[in-house]
Write a structure and sequence with these properties.
Shape: globular
Keywords: DNA-binding
Order of helices and strands: HHHHHHHHHHHHHHHHHH
Number of helices: 18
Largest sheet: none
GO molecular function: DNA-binding transcription factor activity; transcription cis-regulatory region binding
Protein name: TetR family transcriptional regulator
Strand content: under 5%
Organism: Pseudonocardia endophytica
InterPro entries: DNA-bd_HTH_TetR-type_CS, Homeodomain-like_sf, HTH-type_TetR-like_transc_reg, HTH_TetR
Oligomer: single chain
Amino acid sequence: MGTLLPMTTSGTRSRKPADQRRRELAEVAAGHFHRYGFHGVSLAAVAADVGITAPAVYRHFRNKNALLSGAISTGLDHVDAGLAGAGSLDEAVDRLAGAALARPDVWVLLQREMRHLDDDARSAATARFRTLAAAFADHVRRARPDLDEGRSGLLTTAAFAVLATPSVRPVPLGHERYRRALAGIARAVCAAEIPTGTAVPGPAPAARPDDRLLDAAVGLFQRYGYAAVRIDDIGAAAGIAGPSVYHHFGSKMDMLVRAFRQAAALRPDPAGHDLDSLVRSYVDVVMAERELFGVYATEELHLPPDARREHETSLGEQTRRWVSTLRSARPELDDTERELLAHAARAIAHDVARVGRLHTRPAVADETTAVALRAVRG
């Protein structure tokens, strides 16, 4: 049953002002989009959580796409407020760490769900986020006058990747402890010395038909999202008729599951690695297979239950091994804090590889390794 509105002295139910109700709907919807993805969200469920009927949602948002736009906008309000009051890089980092915990959904909405907006709303949200990122990059450059625009952009992406970890892989820390830990990692990232280096070669062209099809599917999933891609699209990208795909894979879902298993198999095993070689090997494989790891980072929601459990088990094993490796490097921390460091280092690799054009920088693997190592070493 929905929440009952309070009675006024005249016996009628009071109504919240329209702006307040609109914001409440957007904030509640953000959690739904975060948990279930655009296609899994029901306006009726959002309405029920707010205590109104589903038709009443349309007084504030014309459709689900507009509701998603509102959810993203209210999340960016938190980021905007954090940056607007910051007088220095340290203060910006502290305030954004608080915003990351106040609205942990916003980063997933930007990375995974924004593609469902109409063109105008998507362009507006993208422009707003870029303005906020540029404001943070300005703080980085003022604190680090040794950096050019490209390197300050790299550090901005890495710092935002750290701040996004509660949205993707939260850890059980109390709020203030979590905020301080996030801010500390992001601050370390912004202080990283960025070396020069050499390029890492991309993956070799796939030889077998199955591999070529999977590569085509992964590229499309990464660009458009799993739900938007059709079998015919995959066939066309691979140069075959859509129905011919079924000679190699039983379904589109089979291709997604295969992609996740392939990414899991490529991840380096931390056993026997020191921290430096672990981070370097992870960065190298992510940079070499950037589209595959882009799918790995954003499309988990679409896995069937058995495959999702398999993925979570594999990821949990990998994380525990990272934590074990980090024990000798960061003995002053507990395992929960080390887990946060592991998620942060991997998020840096994922985001630098797939966000914008950073992956085209000639020395991006060396640069990303240095930044991720600074993140975990503090």
